[in-house]
Amino acid sequence: MAEESFNSAGTIETTFSYHGTSHTFDFPPESTIADLSNRISNELSVPATNQKFLITPKLGILKAPFEHPLLLSVLKSKKIVLLAPTPAELASLAPPRPSSRPSNSTLKPAALYRHRDRQKAQDEATYTFQTILPLNYLPGPARSQKFLERLRDDPGIKASMRKHKFSVGVLTEMNPAEHTTHESRTLGLNRNRGEVIELRLRTDAYDGYRDYKIIRDTLCHELAHNVFGDHDRNFWDLCKSIEREVREADWKHGGQAISNEVFFDPEEREGSGGHVDGGGWSGGEFVLGKSGGKKEAPSQILNRREAMAKAAEERIGRQREAGSGGSGASGASA
């Protein structure tokens, strides 16, 4: 949290988070976000050109050059997250030193191969989740941290993000209590087309974690919201394309199930009761589906979701009565 306050020396204390670590700097009262950027460049060795600041609520992402400098004094009570690669990550992208070997060596230089590796490393550092944030107030945040890191490092997710040039500011977990009703459960949210993606990692009772591949499919769904907000034909075509790319590039064949419970049926998500979320968020509001060129009213959305949830429950009940083994239930909101 950016807790700017005037201390006894008459300076402003500005706190920000960088790769999970909190930093506090003192500044003169008239200092701006550009002064914070210069201080970070000098003390943390992060060049200004690589810096992005996620400032919430409302302000969103700011990056250099700061043409309209924002006074640090107006950021009181706002959360500041620095989104930038670490010096170690930047160093890994530097050209390797030439190796010394005898002039009569018969080995051929592998310059082209090394060049491809460097390009891939640079792309992976750019098209990724810049910050991983578990919810520290929930039980076992370290396990959530590892779960989110596993998603970030999943070979299929990395390959698809490079292909589509997706860069996400923050990947975090969702508090189930805040997105659960009797009728529906939201599995994922995408705010402002990639500023923040939230995923429902935990079970409703906080006593376990959901199936990895189900969560990974939800992440594919949310990544598609980087391009399309509404659940229209273009969105679903992109979503299926991302899921296919992730599965094909998953050379580790990762994602073993943690339990036998199924939380939504991917084959039915375009039908009743199968949507992962209510669409992409823009400016803190849902981007709703359109009907006749107008946005649906909240009461219409609620009634539609209730009808879809009831239809899903009735369908599952009929399957169980018929002994068809229909144990899975859609856990996503439309």
UniProtKB/TrEMBL annotation:
Basic and acidic residues bias: start-end ranges: 293-321
Domain WLM: 120-317
SUPFAM superfamilies: Ubiquitin-like
Chain positions covered by the region annotation Disordered: 269-334
PROSITE patterns for the chain: WLM
Lineage: superkingdom: Eukaryota
PANTHER family registered for this protein in UniProt: DNA-DEPENDENT METALLOPROTEASE WSS1 HOMOLOG 2, UBIQUITIN AND WLM DOMAIN-CONTAINING METALLOPROTEASE SPCC1442.07C
Protein name: WLM domain-containing protein
Organism: Alectoria fallacina
